[in-house]
Amino acid sequence: MFTSLLVGLDGSSHAEVALAQAILVGQRFRSRIVLAHISPPTGRTSEMSLGAPWMEWVAGRAPQTRVEREAAAQRMLDDSAGAVRRAGLEVETVHRTGDVVDELQDLGALVGVIVVGRVGYRGATAEDEVGPDTRTLLRNAPQPVLVCGRIPTAMDRVLVGYSGSPASEATLAFAARFAGISGAHLDVLQFPGSLGDRGELTQRASGALAQAPLDYDLHDGDGPEEEMLLAAARRLGATAVFTETEREHGHWLVPPAADAILRASDLPVLVHPEPTLASARTPSSDRHPASR
Question: Does 121 score more than 70 pLDDT?
Answer without folding.
Answer: no
